[in-house]
Amino acid sequence: MTAAKEKRPGPGSAGTELADARAVPPGALNVNGFSFFNAVSFQIVLGAPVILYAKSLGASSLVLGVIAALTPLLTMLQLVAARFLHRTGYRQFILAGWGARTFFTLCIAILPVLPGLAPPLRLAALVASLFAFNLLRGFSSGAWLPWLTALVPEETRGRFLSRDQAFMHLGCLAALLASAWVMAGLVVQPSEYAAVFGIGLAAALVSLWFIRRIPEAGSPEEKRRSGMPVPWGAMLKFRPFSRLLWFTAAYMTVIGGMGVFTVEYLVVRGKFTAGMILLLSALSFIGALAGLALAGPRLDATGSKPWMRHALRLFGAVIAGWLVLAAGLVPPWPAMVGVLNFFGGLAGAVFGVANTRIIMGSVPVMGRNHFFAVFSVVSGLGLGIAPIAWGAMLDLLGPLDAAFGPASLNRYSVYFAALLVLSAVNLRLARCLHEGAAGAPVAPPAAAEPRPVAPVE
Fold first, then answer.
1. 393, 70 contact by CB (below 8 A)
2. For residues 53 and 438, what is the distance between their CA atoms, to the nearest angstrom?
3. Could you report the per-residue pLDDT of 103-120, keeping only the tens digit for each?
4. pTM recorded for the entire structure
5. CA-CA distance, 455 to 447, in Å (whole number)?
């Protein structure tokens, strides 16, 4: 891009104006529009509303874990997608996948009002539709990080990513508020679930319009180099990448399932209504917006690592709060749940934008598509296996409920105690990360240089 080749501005108002211009590359508003409406859709189709619907159909903790795991596990398809991105272009690739998955959003929307289906059959149809939805998403999402990396200059990625994730969290917030309004009351009717899923379908269709308006990015030569195969061994020996890779995988084992099993805890032991759970969940996205407002303007100047460590400490405190609730030391007051959701959202947003920024700066242009695909797959495996394993553990510990003084030892208190231990381990692992986005662009190791391949016609 032209902006990326200009000289860095010096101090003063002119430099600030140029930096502000770089923070909004051509087509950025369309990226933000896509992020907003896509978030409205996936927060409904993959978030709390679909978890509540599955629970109403009699889903066990293990089934809920499988539903939560579909999205990250199917990111493995990005390894296949990385071979084709330089041939089709980023926009066309994502547009095809996002368009096809919208059909299965329609299937989910009409499922609650289909006549003559018993709850077990509806649950099976829901899981099948979610599998197909995530299959298409997992394959096509392999183009997203390479597209943004080519579109946004390196020196303003922190500000741009914070802005874009703010739009995403606003979309999630809007989805939960709309869902809570539709599903208000003690008993939720099937038609209300269908209406909520219909909102997700409408938002998915609007997001496709914004994708069409985002400009293609990257020269043909850059795309060719990004698509060049890189040996896996060379990637894993590339320290800035490998350290972040394993750290992120460990982090995902902690957060994998948090959004599912906190909701289940509030249903099973807290006896919260669906509308109340959705309203309290919305506070996490208000917290996320606060976190982005705090970190976004400062991220490019300070680097990602300090913010990642702050986020991990805060997230550990949030897990400790859930442990206190699950152990019965404090009643599950809505106010306390709201506070935990707010600060959990704040920590998650700060960590997310810092982590995305550091991975964008930790991979070389040569073979970039494959680096991003391996990163997404390894982190997705951690995020996907975790809820299945935690769900199986929770089902296994189902009857456990023993009192030790004022504390209760039950399956949820065991779950949050295990998460607290793992979060402390992750905080120590964060010290070994390399700030790849700082300074000059990272060069690939000699071992990662691929064999020459013919240019794509």
1. no
2. 45
3. 999 999 999 999 989 999
4. 0.72
5. 21
Helices 157-182 + 48-56 axis angle, to 10:
40
Find where tokens 């991105």 sit.
85
For residue 430, the one-letter residue type is A
* CA distance linking residue 159 with residue 292, whole number of Å: 9
What does the pLDDT look like over 383-426, one tens digit per residue? 888 888 898 999 999 888 888 888 889 999 999 999 999 999 88
Do residues 366 and 333 make contact, with C-beta atoms less than 8 angstroms apart?
Answer: no
* Dist CA 143 CA 214 (whole Å): 13
Could you give the 3-state DSSP secondary structure of residue 403? strand
- Report the candidate in 70, 99, 91 with the shortest Cα–Cα distance to residue 204: 99
Pairing of strands 407-410, 401-404: antiparallel
Residue pair 436/375 in contact by the 8 Å Cβ criterion: no
Inter-residue long-range contacts of 234-237, CB under 8 Å, 24+ positions, other chains counted = 234/444, 234/445, 234/447, 234/448, 235/367, 235/370, 235/371, 235/374, 235/448, 237/445, 237/447, 237/448
Angle at 353 between CA 296 and CA 207, to 5 degrees: 100
